[in-house]
Design brief:
Elements (H helix, E strand, L loop, with lengths): L2 H11 L4 H12 L6 H7 L14 H14 L12 H15 L5 H5 L14 H26 L1
Length: 148
């Protein structure tokens, strides 16, 4: 089991959903510390947005991480102009990699209020997280190297 997979398993065992796991790992990897308010907000995207079976939490979590890395956060900040391209790259990759964007289609069942994080989602979360890191590193990492 990879280090990321083990981290994801631990977070799932603590009751976090796909979207929350993605963002928790990004906060940790980027040294941004704890942000319980952000993690609570991400719960609204669990189970395909409000447990509706809609857009997969790994995908919404991935786009949220891209926003965390490249979005506008204060009145004086500017979003990275490549933000839309980065999100589009993730969406295109997701569509080519998985059978659907919808949680319900992917896991083939409707999630109830108390349903636990489905085990079959682990590989989707892990693969998507790796792709998000790759997109961020290639896009924003390249910009930082150019500035040096």
């Amino acid at each position: 089991m990879s280090q990321d997979s083990f981290r994801m398993f631990k977070l799932a065992a603590q009751g976090f959903c796909c979207t929350q796991i993605m963002v928790l790992m990004a906060l940790e990897d980027e040294g941004k510390g704890d942000n319980p308010d952000l993690i609570r907000a991400m719960q609204g995207l669990c189970g395909g947005m409000g447990r509706s079976g809609g857009t997969c939490g790994a995908l919404t979590g991935g786009v949220s991480i891209i926003g965390l890395a490249a979005g506008k956060g204060t009145p004086t900040e500017q979003a990275n102009p490549k933000l839309g391209r980065m999100a589009g790259e993730l969406l295109e990759w997701f569509d080519k990699t998985f059978p659907s964007r919808d949680c319900e289609d992917i896991i083939q069942t409707k999630l109830g209020e108390g349903d636990a994080y489905p085990v079959k989602c682990g590989s989707i979360v892990s693969t998507t997280y790796a792709k998000v890191r790759e997109i961020i590193d290639q896009t924003i990492g390249d910009e930082e190297e150019e500035e040096d």
